[in-house]
Design goal:
Elements lengths: L2 H22 L11 E5 L5 E2 L5 E6 L3 E3 L5 E3 L12 E3 L2 E5 L7 E11 L4 E10 L17 H30 L8 H30 L8 H8 L2 H25 L6 H16 L13 H32 L2 H34 L2 H5 L2 H28 L2 H4 L1 H25 L5 H9 L6 E6 L4 E7 L4 E10 L10 E8 L4 E5 L2 E5 L2 E8 L3 E10 L5 E10 L1
Helix pairs in contact: 1-2, 1-12, 2-3, 2-7, 2-12, 3-4, 3-5, 5-6, 7-8, 7-12, 8-10, 10-12
Length: about 550
């Protein structure tokens, strides 16, 4: 096997390994890039009366998927009516009136701002808990074939960007006139094809990805929904920009006058527009500082494309065909370009990581953070190799002996192919800020218990169930779960373990069957609450419950 073939095989091995990183890399959290942080009614809570709507609040803005939100009543019938409405990060689900008592199941599936589906369920109860309705109504998961193909498509799109941006820049500004452009032109057209193909694939995959169906279970309506979404609009813009750029590229690739300043300026504008479409469908759009993240991510992609695409041109053509005099003029300029691109990569990557990871713990305690560390290690290796190639250029030994530089550049390409694979996997992983948003979201600490005797069923809510001021809500029902009018309420709270005698709780009657009160609980522990409920001049019940106050 010749030396050139061995170098080609090394670069191909890097490409294959990068694809394996995409296919075999972790993809479990890919459908959880936004988190449900609150709901009204709250999950697993008991409310006295049936609400007329349900409100879901997510950690970032979301878009609705037709027919993918429903509320099931305790008897299994649909409790929602009309169409849900989304406003930013809030989804409102209208409910039909007259809902019965028992436990309701809310099933939802929406698309987060970074184009990933978010699915889940929650339950709440009216009056009293019951057996939840059918769990088979839970929103669908992502088809494993679709899940695997999405990062592959992203990888091919990144590869196409590399083969398009860097080679065009080299052809426009560094290519010797005497050399043929046939080989570079094939490279550029391959890049155009990969970007167009990956974009069309992304549009198709987004339909089953959002609806939870199989790869070929896509209807015309599903595709219309995708094309009408923000994701679809951005993909269509990308297709239009790449097609327009392809028309302008023909003269440049044939050497027939396509390097005029006007054409190059227009190509530059189209290139910026194309690069901007990548961050507009990913994590940056859901960032706390979306404007900064989109710009930084576009810079990151541009620097990567210029650097890697230029390396492909060097190892594939210039170091093979250019003479010593031409290399003497080209290599110093390219070396400065590469240094600038690497600096931009490091700066943009650092800013991205700081925004997405949000904390030092997220760097080592999350899949996203660990992949970033892998990417940093690989990038550091590439930068070390690049520094050695820059040293060769500065010593001018590359001009007289380009074979050494070609081997070094081939090694850079092999490693960066793996870096691209890790990058394609990273964009499918929920960043730590999403998990932290869910963890730090406002959660209910209400203690809800139902206590009863032969005559009455009493629901008691204690909030926030911590030391200090607490609110009590009391709801009285008959044994068959109908509201029970109460004439008089009394309540006490005691903590025998710490010698705290019963403290009277002042109660205020709100409705015939609902009373509220406030009490300051001075210590943590298992408190004993005692309630006396008088329903007539001669009928009353005394009920006791224990609740742990933290």
């Amino acid at each position: 096997m010749t030396v050139d073939r061995r170098r080609g095989m090394a670069a191909l091995a890097g490409l294959v390994f990068g694809l394996l990183c995409v296919v075999l890399g972790p993809a479990g959290p890919a459908s959880a890039h936004a988190a449900l942080v609150a709901s009204d009614p709250g999950s697993n809570t008991i409310v006295p009366d049936a609400p007329n709507k349900i409100t879901l609040t997510f950690s970032e803005s979301v878009q609705l998927i037709s027919g993918k939100i429903q509320v099931l009543a305790p008897d299994g019938s649909r409790a929602d009516q009309g169409e849900p409405q989304a406003a930013g990060s809030t989804v409102t689900i209208p409910l039909r009136s007259g809902g019965g008592r028992g436990t309701y199941l809310v099933s939802y599936r929406v698309v987060s701002a970074d184009s990933h589906p978010v699915a889940g369920t929650l339950t709440y109860s009216v009056g009293a808990q019951s057996t939840p309705p059918g769990e088979d109504q839970i929103a669908e998961s992502v088809d494993p074939v679709v899940r695997a193909l999405i990062p592959v498509g992203k990888y091919l799109g990144y590869a196409g960007l590399v083969l398009l941006v860097g080679p065009v820049l080299v052809l426009a500004l560094l290519w010797p006139h005497r050399l043929s452009r046939v080989g570079p032109a094939r490279l550029v057209w391959t890049g155009v094809g990969l970007v167009l193909g990956s974009t069309v694939l992304a549009l198709w995959l987004q339909a089953p990805y959002t609806t939870g169906t199989g790869l070929f279970d896509v209807s015309g309506g599903d595709l219309r929904d995708v094309l009408g979404s923000t994701f679809g609009a951005v993909m269509l813009v990308r297709l239009g920009v790449i097609i327009a750029a392809a028309l302008l590229l023909r003269p440049l690739l044939t050497g027939s006058g396509g390097d005029s300043r006007a054409d190059l300026a227009l190509l530059g504008v189209l290139g910026v527009a194309a690069l901007a479409t990548w961050p507009l469908t990913g994590h940056p759009t859901a960032s706390p500082v979306a404007g900064v993240s989109v710009v930084v991510d576009a810079i990151h992609l541009a620097a990567m494309s210029v650097w890697l695409g230029g390396l492909v041109m060097l190892v594939g053509f210039l170091l093979r065909s250019a003479d010593e005099r031409e290399l003497g003029a080209i290599l110093p300029i390219w070396s400065r370009w590469a240094a600038t691109a690497v600096a931009a990569l490091i700066l943009a990557g650092t800013v991205q990581a700081l925004i997405e990871i949000a904390s030092f713990k997220g760097l080592y305690d999350s899949t996203y953070g660990r992949l970033i560390l892998v990417k940093v290690a690989l990038a550091a290796t590439v930068i070390g190799v690049a520094a050695y190639s820059r040293k060769l250029v500065r010593s001018r030994s590359a001009e007289t002996s380009p074979g050494t530089l070609r081997r070094v550049v081939a090694a850079e390409l092999a490693i960066t192919a793996v870096v691209l694979g890790v990058t394609a996997a990273v964009v499918q992983i929920a960043p730590p800020r999403t998990a932290e948003a869910a963890e730090t979201a406002q959660t209910s600490t209400t203690i809800t218990q139902t206590i009863s005797d032969d005559a009455i069923s009493l629901q008691v809510d204690v909030f926030p169930a911590t030391v200090g001021n607490n609110s009590l809500h009391l709801y009285a029902y008959t044994r068959d779960n109908k509201p029970l009018p109460v004439v008089e309420w009394t309540a006490t709270a005691a903590l025998p373990a710490k010698g705290i005698e019963p403290i009277e709780v002042p109660l205020l009657r709100i409705t015939d069957f609902h009373a509220v009160g406030d009490i300051a609980l001075p210590a943590a522990g298992e408190w004993t609450f005692k309630f006396t409920v008088r329903t007539s001049d001669i009928d009353q019940s005394t009920l006791t419950m224990k609740a742990t106050i933290s």
